Amino acid sequence: MKNQEERYMKKSISILLILIIVLSLFVISGNAADYQWKIQHIRPIGTSIDKDVNWLVDQIKEKSNGRIVIDIYPASQLGDYTVVQERVGLGDVEMQLACLGTTMDPGLMIQSLPYIVSNWKEAGVLYTTGSPLMNVVADLLKKQNLKLISGWPCYFGGICLTKEPPAPADPDIPKKIKIRVPPQKSFELCADALGYLATPIAWSEAFTSLQTGIVDGAIGAGAEGYYSNFRDLAKYYLAVNDHFEMWYFYMNLDLWNSLSQEDQQIIQNLGFELEHKRFAIAEEEEKANEQRLRDYGIKVINFTDEELARFAKKIKENVWPKLRNDIGPEIMDAVLSK
After folding, report:
1. What pLDDT, on a 0 to 100 scale, did the predictor assign at position 15?
2. Are 217 and 239 within one domain?
3. N or C: which end of the chain has fewer CB within 10 A?
């Protein structure tokens, strides 16, 4: 009788353990993410943008109680940012935080119009979410099935070179130096106006082009970008402030529209916070990155306010009119008249 009772107890315990395991599986399943997304950015692990994207996805996961989980793909692992921009529009990738390609819509050149702002104070007004410029960018991205969440301010752009240029402060003297420009008309015209020979090359091919001597320099990035990617090749960095580099946090518009208002608010609020956090430190980081170039043995050439004003004057007089029809007169007026 006692043996039967022991067997009964053991059997009951076994059944109880099985029930506990089954219930645990249900609980775990119930806490699983409702959404599993991908986000790409264009810099290596450990860089400022990588740290901020990690903060962003961690906060989204926390605020959504684990319902939204986002896997990070740094250093353009999913493809060149222009390719991934299209993939996000198609829904193949859910999110990206990067600069914008303009091939599909030249109107987007307005956000990188050379010398549209001349200092960080002006940039903090023009490039803040909700500004006329950012509203225009948001409307243009909708046409590509993209939802703009917020921006991530980077730096003012400059030129890196493997050889010393003649009269770097005089845009009217031909430099006879071929430099890589992004495949974007605004950068091409700007480089030409500053005295260089523009050669459109994708960012993913820029290092090899510099390494093999196809070009002897590049425009389209700033001190941070050149240090991260070209520090072993560059000999000079010219802080010409040719454009303000803003990266954009966006996602697939259809996916955004399918979300609850609560989830939309979580993502939007964190996007705003990310933008504000970045604006607070970006200028100091720009100076720090210029110093990193100096410490690495690269000669940094800075310019006076008068010299920068001379660059800007030439660009506004010679380049802006040529871009007006490409960007669209209504877009130019909507942004520049404010």
Report:
1. 57
2. yes
3. N
